[in-house]
Prior knowledge:
EC 2.7.7.65; binds guanosine-5'-triphosphate; single chain
Amino acid sequence: MFRRKVCKAFDLRYEQTRQHAIIMSANWFLWVNLLFSIVILVRYYFNPSVNLAIPAGHADFSHLPLFAVMVISAAVLYMLKYSPDRLSRNIWTMLRVTMLILSLNWCLVLFLLFASGGRPVIFALASILLLTGLIALYVDALAWFLFSVPLQAAIIITSLVFTSYITVVNVLAYIALALLVESARRMLNTWFVLAIHREQENNDLIQRLEIQANCDPLTGLANRRAFQVMLDKAVQRASFQQGDSTFSMLMLDVDKFKNYNDFYGHQAGDSCLIQVAESIENAVRANLDLVGRFGGEEFIVLLPQASATDAADIAKRIQSALSMRNIEHMASDVTNKVTVSIGIAEWSPGLTASQLVSRADSALYYAKHSGRNQYQMFYPANNPVKEQTVKQA
Ligand SMILES: Nc1nc2c(ncn2[C@@H]2O[C@H](COP(=O)(O)OP(=O)(O)OP(=O)(O)O)[C@@H](O)[C@H]2O)c(=O)[nH]1
C-alpha cells in the first residue's frame, strides 16, 4: 500500500519533470534548427568554396524546406514563449508534431543537397541534426522517434536513389549510427530517471526530517520548538500591524494525570494524551489555530485573530469535546472523567512571546488552584477574576 503511494508520487514527479525538460530543451532545439537553417541559407557569405553547392534550378527548391524550418521554428518558439499554459498536453502534442514536420523538411533539404552535389557533407549534416535532436529530445521517446526515424530513413533512401549501389560498409555504418543514437538515448534517459529518483528520495528525507523536527511523535501535534517559532512570528506580525492585531493563546493541562498514569498504566496514559490532543484539535478553528504539545501532559493553542473572550469560547468547546469522549478517570478527585484546566492570555502591544506564555501559564496555575476542570483568563494585574471561572459538569 505504502509502496504504491511512493510509486504514484514518483510517476507524477517524473511526468512533471519530463514536461519541464522537454519544454526547456525544445526551446534550445528550435533555436538550433532556426540558426542551422539560416547558416545553410547564407553559407556563401561565410565561405563561397563550401561544398554545399546548389546549381541553378535546384537552389529554389532547396531553399523552400530551409525557409519552412526557419518559419516553423520561429513560430513554435513564439508560441512557447507566449502560451498561457506551457505545460499543457496540447503543447506537448504540438511539439511532437513539430518535430515530425521539421524532420520531414530536413529530409527534403538532404535529398535536394544530395541531388545537387553536396553529397560529402550530407552524412555530417544528418549526424549533427541527429545528435542535437538526441540531446534535446531523449526524455520524450516519441518526439525523438518522430524526429530521428525520417532522417535516418532519408539517408538510406537518398543513398539508394542517387547511387546505383549500396555497399555493405554503408549499410553497416547506417546500422551503427542508428544503434549508437538509440543506445545513447537510453543511457541519457536512465540518468534522467535516476536523477528524479534521487530528487524524490531527497524530498522524502527532507519531509521526514521536517516532521521529526517539528512534530510531537506521540500526538502528531506541533512540538514546543515548532510552536515557539509560530508564536514568535505571531508576536512579530501583531507588533508591526496597525489596527486590529489581537490574538490569544491557551495553555492546557490534564488534571491529575499522574494519578491516571499510576492507576491505568503509562500506555493507557499515552492513549489518553492522544485523545486529549484529538479533542483539542477538533474543537479549535480548522486551518487557523495551531495546537501544540508544550511538554508532558501540557498543551498549548495559538489563536490568531481571537480576543480573550473568543478564546474563552474555544476553551469551552475544548472542555465539552473532551467531556463528550467520556474518558474514565477513577483516580481523579475532580470528577470521574478526564478533564483539563485551561489558562487564557490575550496578546497586547509590547508583550513578548515569553511574557505571553508566562501569562497563560499563571492563568492556568490559577485555574488549577481554583479547583481544576475550568478555564481562567489572565488579567494585566495578574489577578484573574473569579467570575471568569466556568466549571465543566
Ligand atoms: N503516559 C504518559 N505520561 C506522561 C507523559 N509525559 C508526562 N507524563 C506524566 O504526566 C504526569 C504529570 O504529573 P503532574 O505534573 O504531577 O501533574 P498532575 O498529576 O496532572 O496534577 P495536576 O496537574 O496538578 O492536576 C507525570 O506523572 C508524568 O510522568 C507521556 O508522554 N506519557
